[in-house]
Amino acid sequence: MDSLLFTPIELRGIRLKNRIVLSPMLTYSCVDGNLSDWHLVHLGKYAAGGTGLVFMESTKVDPRGCTTPADPGLWDDRFIAPMRRITAFIKQFGAVPGIQLSHSGRKSRHARPWEGRGPLDIVPDLPGGGPWELVAPSAVPHEPDHPVPSALTREGIRELVQAWGKAAVRADKAGFEVVEIHAAHGYLIHQFLSPAANRREDEYGGSLENRMRFAVEVATETRRCWPEHKPLFMRISAIDSAGWEIEHSVELAKRLKAVGVDVVDCSSGGLADMNHVAGTSGATGYGYGYQVPHAERIRREADVMTMAVGHIVHADQAEAILRDGRADLVAIGREMLHNPNWPIDAAQKLGVKPGFDQIPSAYGYWLEKRARARVAVQPSTWRAGIDAPGERRPSR
Ligand SMILES: Cc1cc2nc3c(=O)[nH]c(=O)nc-3n(C[C@H](O)[C@H](O)[C@H](O)COP(=O)(O)O)c2cc1C
């Protein structure tokens, strides 16, 4: 079959061998911002499983912006060398290494999700040392009972814009080929965008134009510091249940495109609640592809490439999203945790031949032989796809 999912795509000077992306996912496993062999194995296995673009988890441009004390850092040159080892490993399998650059603002200094996620009762030192101060656009806490952050001064804002640029320079030295700026999920850039979190009365607050200023400045500075031939993505919360609507995202996407953002990665939520982010809500639940309509609308109305994410699980579902022109790339999060070999599984289900050339020969040679055997043996992951009996249809 002729598959769009497995058709390579050129983004500036970088070629992805397919349109499957490992969505950035924090593993909260660093000490003082440092990576370990965990990250080599964790990220390496998606590259070896055939993923085209492998995103390193949300990595902080400033230690104050760590969501937890176990987030990775890129605020210092000392982080470059250990990352180089990981990017080289990923590239060895024909995958492209990407990194998400982030600052959590008032949502920093929290416990890990499986430890309750809330603000830490005992304030630890900053990763790397020193007192850990919370900063945000305004002195407004994330929840009424959360700590109140300090409102950033204009000088503080300027330093943070530059911090993204400096981190991009380090990311380039570390061998990453794609940078994604994290402007979603209620973190610092989203806090600036939001009228609920941003009560500033200067040029960074008030009107939509003013609230978008920080996001656009970060994108502009990152683009300036990031090599011309390397693509730049920005993840946004397309809607957030707190006053930010899809029309605002379309306006933002137009401005981001104008300053050199190549792909808008369309997530949602995180400002008022975390349910949208991963599509988990006891009350209503979120169906397959619940954020795809945002990627579709932003793509159409802002005329920019988009990446869809959120409950994209099945091969035929991912293929249809691309074929129907709803997004240019599909990012897969938890289903990759479930099956890091998702791309080769998808290739078989879509009938892409040979398919196993997406992975190292040490695996591919044997799996292809088995797949061609006269007596058919189906892999343990075998299902017909989203239209198989008992599957729920994707929400549109
Ligand atoms: C364990 C975990 C960690 C995550 N960490 C990040 C992150 O670092 N940056 C980010 O933008 N989104 C993060 N997310 C959101 C995912 O990237 C993705 O957008 C979300 O899980 C929906 O996609 P899925 O249904 O394919 O998992 C995380 C999600 C999970 C489950």
From TrEMBL:
Keywords: Flavoprotein, FMN, NADP, Oxidoreductase. It comes from the Bacteria. This is NADH:flavin oxidoreductase/NADH oxidase. The lineage of its organism: Bacteria, Pseudomonadati, Pseudomonadota, Alphaproteobacteria, Hyphomicrobiales. Its cofactor is FMN. Residues 5-350 form the NADH:flavin oxidoreductase/NADH oxidase N-terminal domain.
